[in-house]
Amino acid sequence: MATLRTFIAIELDEDLKDNLARLQNRLRGQMSPRSVRWVRPEGIHLTLKFLGDTTEEQAVQVKEALNRAAAGAGPIPFSVGGVGCFPNTRRPRVVWVGLHEPTGALARLRDAIEEQVVPLGFPTEKRPFSPHLTLGRVHRRASKSEVREVGEVVAASAIGDIDEMTATAVSYIQSDLRPSGAVYTTLACVELGG
Known about the structure:
Blueprint: E1 3-11, H1 14-28, E2 36-38, E3 45-55, H2 56-71, E4 76-86, E5 94-100, H3 105-117, E6 132-138, H4 144-156, E7 161-167, E8 169-178, E9 181-191
Antiparallel strand pairs: 1-3, 1-8, 2-6, 4-5, 4-7, 5-6, 8-9
């Protein structure tokens, strides 16, 4: 049985993607060129739930679940700024920019999505919700000194707020992994608040 690799996310507006591209270029200019695989700006999104392998039957159910989860939410304004690494700057694997949404609406939306899709056979997310946008991933082939340099550059970067956006919809997205990078196809887009 064929499966799709899918996730649920908030897609970003073009201005924010442009600002993220400028931030990536700023950071890239301070690091060894081989140290980080940067995410293409058009592929950056705010993941709310990674589903992974999804059957066609589950995909139909996820779309219905997403409608139910989004119905209880309204537009969600948030700001973007500050950079960091997962798991930390001493052992960087992922370079990210943070999101600030003080009302908790984003976490409530994520929880509503989780509540709707877990009964469809998807695992419960164990990690606490940490909204972020992935800018890049440290290369597996990066040397110890290059990895250390990535952490040092990120730790020394004083990045304040770079943009604001209001999320008005949530998307169900298919991800096709290719040698050139992931290709994303939006399978459904649901307005927040119906």
